Amino acid sequence: MDKAALDPSDSLEKPSTSKIEKRPGSASSSDSEQVETTKKCKKDIKMETNNEDSLKVKITLPDALKDWIIDDHDLVNRQKKIVQLPARITVDHILANYVRERVSTKALTKVWEDSVVDFSNRMRELFNVSLGKSLLYKFERPQYSQMLKDHKEIKMCQLYGAAHLTRLVCKIGDMLTSIREETQDRTPPGYFVNQVEDFLKFIASKESLYLSADDYMVATPEYHRQAMT
């Protein structure tokens, strides 16, 4: 078979290879416009990037909690275990302990004391709202449904514990970023971020007390069937 027949490019009109003569040192108006347009695009991209960065909320996570998040994921998703509920130490108790420990510091001002109490209350509310939406793995949902059925008058912060609270705190940075992007709020979030990071340090300092693989139990065959539906 003729090789030329296989090349569809041969049927296309070839562009002229003749050079366009230009005067030395001269540039067309279209070239100048293109250069200016390129400069403007680069400037706009840089401004857009800076604006996006100004909306991001970065939270520093202690190494101990980074390791725990990995262990927690493995316990639920690979080993197919679920947390024993009600938790040994609930979210409600952990936040109360945090307030008690911070307020007992002699150097703490009244304004800071009030902010610690306010922070703990906001965290309780955020936990109750976020648990069913973004803090559960799929395998945990049957258990959550059962908790809602069996404890209609009890808030989730009084049933769940440190494992799910840690998941929440680790997600707060992304949550705040999402809210700020939607509202274009560029107010520095430093105050709340400092509170969150202080709370993370508190949990990390008591990791052996609050976070334990012993708080998980092997799910029953019946539970496995429910989780698969």
UniProtKB/TrEMBL annotation:
GO cellular component annotations of the record: NuA4 histone acetyltransferase complex; nucleus
Keywords of this entry: Chromatin regulator, Nucleus, Transcription, Transcription regulation
BP GO annotations: chromatin organization; regulation of DNA-templated transcription
Matching Pfam families: MRG (PF05712)
Subcellular location: Nucleus
Region described as Disordered: spans on this chain: 1-41
Primary localization class, coarse: nucleus
Superkingdom assignment: Eukaryota
InterPro entries: MRG, MRG_C_sf, MRG_dom
Domain MRG: 39-217
Signal peptide extent: none
Protein name: Mortality factor 4-like protein 1
Species this chain originates from: Caerostris extrusa (Bark spider)
